[in-house]
């Protein structure tokens, strides 16, 4: 088999696996999600201070952030705490 053909096969398989993973992350309820608060305070202009939450799900490995000034959003429309 030509290397080029095998590379195309691998890329097609990788794409398929990527979408399968995205689908699992959408279905996951992130029940074991971890929450870590971050801040970037002490700026000369306090309005430039940022506070955010980093979320990580150990099950589906999805990671995302949300602004701390908003509610604790687990998924759009789903609030915890
Ligand atoms: Zn998850």
3D architecture notes:
The protein has one helix and five strands, in the order αβββββ. It is of the alpha+beta class and 81 residues long. The chain has one domain. The model has no long low-confidence stretch (mean pLDDT 87).
How many β-strands, per DSSP? 5
- Radius of gyration, in Å, reads 19 Å
**Average pLDDT level:** 87
Strand content: 25-35%
Please give the count of helices: 1
- The outline comes out as elongated
Bound molecules: zinc ion
Structural class: alpha+beta
Major sheet details: 3 strands, antiparallel
Q: Trace the largest sheet across and list its strands.
A: 1-2-3
Concise account of the structure shown:
The protein is an alpha+beta fold and about 80 residues long.
Tag the structure with descriptive keywords.
81 residues; alpha+beta; three-stranded antiparallel β-sheet; two-stranded antiparallel sheet; binds zinc ion
């Amino acid at each position: 088999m030509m290397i080029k053909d095998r590379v195309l096969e691998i890329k097609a398989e990788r794409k398929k696996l990527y979408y399968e993973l995205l689908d699992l992350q959408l279905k996951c309820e992130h029940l074991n999600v971890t929450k870590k608060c971050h801040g970037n305070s002490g700026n000369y202009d306090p309005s430039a201070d940022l506070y955010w939450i980093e979320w990580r799900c150990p099950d589906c490995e999805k990671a995302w952030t949300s602004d701390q000034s908003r509610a604790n959003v687990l998924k759009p429309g789903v609030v915890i705490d």
